[in-house]
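Lab meeting, item 3. Inverse folding demo.
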């Protein structure tokens, strides 16, 4: 898989923004991607050094609209920690 297929989008929340001070960045990733592939994709796309990757599966939430109900799609989230000597990701710097 290409790096663009592994990293789907950044996750922008208050909690993910708080982790940026510790060089931790959150992304939505492909469901079948493993930690090694995620680390290589982030290094290739953003030209940084990754120290570790934590992944988790996010379940779909129950949503109702009138009398019909259904679930939002489930997805996979990755929290990528960068090394101390690595530069920051410029995309997230503009968010602060």
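The presenter then showed the designed sequence:
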């Amino acid at each position: 898989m290409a790096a663009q297929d592994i990293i789907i989008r950044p996750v922008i929340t208050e909690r993910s923004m708080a982790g940026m001070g510790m060089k931790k960045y959150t992304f939505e990733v492909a469901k079948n991607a493993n930690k090694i592939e995620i680390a290589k994709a982030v290094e290739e796309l953003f030209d940084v050094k990754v120290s570790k990757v934590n992944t988790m599966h996010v379940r779909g939430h129950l949503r109702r609209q009138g009398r019909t109900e259904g679930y939002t799609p489930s997805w996979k989230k990755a929290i990528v920690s960068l090394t101390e000597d690595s530069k920051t990701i410029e995309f997230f710097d503009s968010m602060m």
